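INFO  loader      accepted 1 record
INFO  loader      residues=170
INFO  predictor   begin
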Amino acid sequence: MKMAKQVYSSSMQRLWAQILKQELTHPGTTSLRALTILISMTHKEALLFQRIMSVSCQINNNKDRKIITSIKTTKKVIYFWTKNNSYPIEYHQYALPYSSIIILMDLGLILKTEFESSKINPRQNIQLYFQSISYTLNSYNKNTSFTYYRISPIGQELASLIDYNSNNKY
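INFO  predictor   done
INFO  writer      dumping tokens
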């Protein structure tokens, strides 16, 4: 309750009201760590987190949200020589410069390591879930993978508390 009293922004007050409501109906659902991070966040950082969540997705049946950063392919040019191609997603065109990811990493909302998926099996579909929109992806190259950042467990917890919509431009 002391933490909630220190918030002056109306949008942050609404978020705290939602958290308090959830705690009253389901005690213990919000961790102390999440509340500590939330109280330290500025309004600008909360908006950044909301925008990041609008481009995050879930892959197949995994409930962890991810921010896909690039698609990578490897092609065999000659028997012993391969060519690697990387196709980065340029988030600055969605008002999300790389610095916003760094800010959220420093807050502990995004894990600091960029991960790479295993090679995508061309005979299997990959499902990407963005809020209520679902996409099915197929790979035609057996040496295709993607890189991504994971939303941290604390970030996942806070994401369940905030309202965000899919970024239609994305």
